[in-house]
Amino acid sequence: MILALLLSIAPGLGQDRSVLERWRESLDLDLPGEVITAALPLVARSGPLAKDGEAIALAARALAAAGEEQRAAKLLDEARPEAASLGFVEVARARLAIERDDLARAREILLVPQVAPPVTPQVASVRTDPPVRFPAIPECWLLAGRALYRSDEGTGEKERAAPLLERFLELAPLDAQAPSALHMLAQTAIALGDTAAAGELRKKALASATWQDFYRTRRLQVREKPDEPLPRLGLAELFLAAGAHARAREVCRELVARVPRFCRGFVALGLAERGLGDLAAARKAFERALDCDPRAAPTYLDLARVLAAGGDKNAAAATYARYRDLGGTEPLEEH
Amino acid sequence: MHPRRAVSIAALLLVSWGCGRKPASPATSRDGASAPPAPAEDLVDEARERGLDYENRSGSPEKATILEANGAGVALIDLGNDGDLDVVFAQGLPSLRRIVTGPGVDLEIYENDGKGHFSHVPGPGLSGWWTGLAVGDVDGDGDQDLVAGGYGDLALLLQDAEGHLVPKPNAGLIPDDPAARLQVGWPRAPGHPPLWATSLALFDADGDGNLDLYVCQYVDLDPVAPPSGALGEGALAVPCRWKGYEVFCGPGGLVAQPGRILRGRGDGTFEDKTREWLPGIVPAYSLGVLPFDADGDGDTDLYVANDSMPNLLLINDGHGVFADRAYAAGVALSSDGRAEAGMGVASGDVNRDGLFDLAVTNFSDEPTELYFGSKRGFTEMTYRYGLQGETRHLLKWGVHLVDFDGDGWLDLFTANGHVYPQADRQHTGTRYGQPATLWHLGPEPRAVRVEPASESSILAPAVGSRGSAVGDLDGDGAPDLVLCRIDARASLGMNRMGAQNHRLAIRCLGPQKPSGSDPRPAAEDGLRRTPADGMGARVAVVVGRGAAEHGLLAEVETAVGYQSASTSWLHFGLGAEAGYEAIRIAWPSGKVEQLPAGRGDRRLTVREGAGIVHAEAFR
Questions:
Q1: In the structure, what pLDDT confidence band is assigned to residue A5 with cuts at 50, 70 and 90?
Q2: ipTM score of complex
Q3: For residue A36, which residues of chain B lie inside 8 Å, CB to CB?
Q4: How many CB atoms lie within 10 A of CB B365?
Q5: Which residues contact B448 (CB under 8 A, 6 or more apart)?
Q6: Helix (H, G, I), strand (E, B) or coil at B175
Q7: Do the chains contact at B337 and A31, CB–CB below 8 Å?
Q8: C-alpha pair distances (Å), B24 with each of B384, B434, B522, B571
Q9: pTM attached to this predicted model
Q10: Which residue, A177, A209, B7, B92, shows the most beta carbons closer than 10 Å to its own?
Q11: CA B608 to chain centre
Q12: Does the pLDDT value for residue B36 go beyond 90?
């Protein structure tokens, strides 16, 4: 019954990766059982995702997280993914090797053979001549960096790991492993005696870890009570704070669709749209917010600023005047 | 990290062996052809045969609250000054509610007949839910005393001339807050959580020769209205779940209690010096504490293992004022930058380079961390020793770095067991009942697991454990191990390992008190003094000659592992060497003494300024 249900949704998976995102989130939330139940029938040899390396990798990661490393390894060994997604399977293999402390094997899988990364490369050179085998997969950079970092015996591996970790952070700044990458960079800076850089990286690592803690909590709250608006709003605000406006918009759209009478959802949507540069959509969202709550002074200011940015000076002035009437004191111009 | 880290303990002790891992001497090589064939080796559980019938109670089997999962500690203490180690267990109650309604429970004491057989004797008459124990000569009168910590109480028990532990009233251990102490059986309103002490450490923070006390404290847990189901309210409530299963709440989401440090006056009373000695230390969920000289400057520092929060490396300025240097030293977080769920801590010189290394136990999905001391801070060796793969499915508590088999290399022991009975459900990657584990850590950077040789091994049963303590209970020179299992009978692991190897046991004592002085005067002259029980003395035993020469380093501290106290005797494995070349002792007073070569297989008592004052062969 469950299998039939899963298979019935599978045909759309090629286009809709949201199922994989859901699995990824489940793993981030330490819910491997959920992924195992959902994924294994789909990635089985006759399953609709049998050739999807990313899906197979997530299933293997779930098995390993549930203590079934051998089953995970077997799944990866027997996988026959399409060439385009082979990298995910290889990276998953490396992940298993790292969990078994087989750092040499992980390095072998992840790093381009015979080309050891230079000791002090610039990120630019990492981009143009990537030392990792699967540069399009952010996790490959992280794991390669981690394998090198953990291998260090005062022989420079930490320094070699640094540009890989930096590249990972560029590719996936909001990944659950971002604090880890920042921490390794901070410790490397300490080892090199660069206390200023170490202090800065430590602050970033702490901020990233705090952000991840909130992110995790909000997602748990959303899962627990999907129709409660506050956890989704919190999620959107986290993305806004991180400058991830597209993801904030995604959350807000779902929020206002589920709870159209929750005025703050439109405000957050307006901020996300504005962050993405879509002033018309932002205006529409702020206007919806004011329809919903006509006495929300800050929203008038948000709307006035969008109007001003769009060149509608008269409307901006009128809206700003309303903001002042309601007791607002901020200037129209943003600093 | 403290700048004086560069002065290694090896240098301080003028030990001649070089830094870095050396090839093992043929006598101590694990694979050396000269080593005789090893007999079946094990830590054989003889608790029942030897009369150790303690059975732990720690709440309900369902573990409805976090208190019920944390279990009890065990202490080895010489009661009666007869030279053998007696055993004291902490004890819990069948439910959290019982701590309010009463009656509470007492500590449980087992007296050693000198040959490792035990009799259950009356306890000191306490009433509570007891967790952590610490041992040391608090009043400097030449015998060991005990501090018992628990949920809602802390008690000092001074040993009298007959070897009885007598509660000392008004010892100054409890904070002024009237809610801090939980009077068992007294009415209590909701909303007033008591103190919750976990691990304790008696050590000399300020060098005055009197033992001070570090108290790890955990979380605010309301005994009348404990949290259940979820933390927080309304739409933003967070369910108390683990891997999707409903479990007890905490520690995340509960209020952390601050660790405290109390200055011992040497007369059996203490004063709270937390504000002055621990400036800027934020409250954390503390579970483990280890005193040791982390930076090699001669005073005692502290490592504090926190649950789900960064661990602390508290570096002592020599006068008892501590500053946290864990992050810079690389021991605050995992190498992945995660605050792990630190439980127990042990130290020892694993790679024989003259620097103390650390082992820290953690939650499941986290490894037991192994950090090697280096000239600046510590280097994580967890992964190179394979400990991630070996330990991440276990939830680890008590921990020891002890040379059980006497081959001259330390072994790693951990007590294990999950906190959630739900661990036995599907897809958790772990189990509720877990066996205790032992690994050999030799010259090669790889932890080699010791499998139980028989069903009677303490390593065999998959029954959870928490506290553990190490000491020679039968006088044969080999350190044995007492294991406090949760909701089950304790195990007594009699050491049958390395019978072919030679050993040495050393006890350090402070200088003889001038006659007529009682109690020991506080150091008002600014001079550093060695505590009466030698706490903080660092001992290097030089073994072998020429290429085979190596040094074995240890420090007198009883607080090790989790909520427990081990022997103050130091145990050294000499391998095939029948004796030692030299013993060098750096006393907390600053004096350094060297003792000439001598025979092994003996117990030596060394007093500061007097050399070996007693020696006897192992039984």
A1: very low
A2: 0.90
A3: 427
A4: 18
A5: B439, B440, B441, B442
A6: coil
A7: no
A8: 19, 33, 45, 19
A9: 0.93
A10: B92
A11: 24
A12: no
